[in-house]
Amino acid sequence: MKFEELKNKKILITFHINSDIDAVASACILQNILGNNITLSNYGRMDHDAKKLIEFYNKKIEKWENINLLEFEYLIAVDGQNYGMFPHLKNKKVDLLIDHHNSSTEKMQTKNDIIDPNAISTTEIIYSLIKKQNININSETAELILCGIISDSLRYKEVSKNSFLYSEELIKLIKNKYEKLIELSVPRLPKEECIGFINSAKTFKYAIEKEMIIITAKCPSYTGDIATVLSETVADVVFTTAPKEHNTLIKISGRTWVGSGVEITTILKKLEKKYNGTGGGHPYAAGMDFPATPETINKLQNKILHNCMQLSIKEIKKNK
């Protein structure tokens, strides 16, 4: 697939629900290189860090509810590959999908797809295509690619064989200081979430297995951010849950520290069938949604987190 062939088409680009920096940055990069005839659209919630990135680069994102698909010739989906992550695309065939995840659920219908689970981010895949097709990029595009790499690698906690090489190339093209990109890629939590983090400490449960600390917690929201903070400071394995969609879904996020021997995706795959979950991610960082009801959500969170704790202990015993 050559980007040059898409330049004259009217294209709609969308990304997964609960969209993060890599998803949003990937869409913005494609818009930059394909031209002004491109519309970006999101469905559902967007992470606060993704919103900050959009605001900083002054990008316009249309609400999916305002989109008429008949007005577009070509549909691109980025940073995901199953209908659980793209409920707005259910029963629709995507013209092009670009993603780097190991999907744990059935892939949606596509005419063409570019999937590389060895890439650390979707922006990294897009940059590899840009390089192969000898496309010149401006400083903004270079910064967006770098933000996706920084964010999805959790500040180079886990990298692909190309992450450092690409980052070195991109740093030569950026205009903003690297420190600014770190600020955009790994932003501070909003103050209300910091308070939520403190309050969630009351729900912390932990276990120590072969000197590895495992923590589970129930949070008000921002499960991924809270799990990341815990995994980078005090714990080797972390699972956090939060209710969403008016207590009809449980969102879980898992994070590991280097050397824990626990793969988050392995554990979530074991819970997927048991609790009818949808999601995916990386061995060191992944998430999933489980259906619930307002009446059962609290009890179900406890069950899921208990399972995560037991499965983590089992994985550590097996690997250490």
Task: Write a concise keyword list for the protein shown above.
320 residues; alpha/beta; inorganic pyrophosphatase (n-terminal core); Diaminopimelate Epimerase, Chain A, domain 1; 2 domains; seven-stranded mixed sheet; 10 helices; 13 strands; 22% strand
Largest sheet: 7 strands, mixed
* CATH-derived topology of the largest domain: inorganic pyrophosphatase (n-terminal core)
Low-confidence stretches: none
Secondary structure category: alpha/beta
Shape: globular
Strand order of the largest sheet: 6-12-13-11-10-9-8
* pLDDT averaged residue by residue: 92
Number of helical segments? 10
CATH class of the largest domain: Alpha Beta
Distance between the termini: 44 Å
Question: Summarize this, please?
Answer:
The chain has 320 residues and is an alpha/beta fold. The chain is built from ten helices and 13 strands. The strands form two sheets. The protein has a seven-stranded mixed β-sheet. The chain has a six-stranded parallel β-sheet with strand order 3-2-1-4-5-7.
Structure description:
- The protein is an alpha/beta fold and 320 residues long.
- The protein has two domains: 3-185, inorganic pyrophosphatase (n-terminal core); 191-319, Diaminopimelate Epimerase, Chain A, domain 1.
- The protein is 38% helix and 22% strand.
- It is built from ten helices and 13 strands.
- It has a seven-stranded mixed sheet with strand order 6-12-13-11-10-9-8. Strands 3-2-1-4-5-7 form a six-stranded parallel sheet.
- A hairpin with a 3-residue loop joins β12 and β13 (285-291).
- α1 packs antiparallel against α4 (139-152), α4 crosses α6 (178-185) and α9 (264-275) crosses α10 (297-319).
- It is globular.
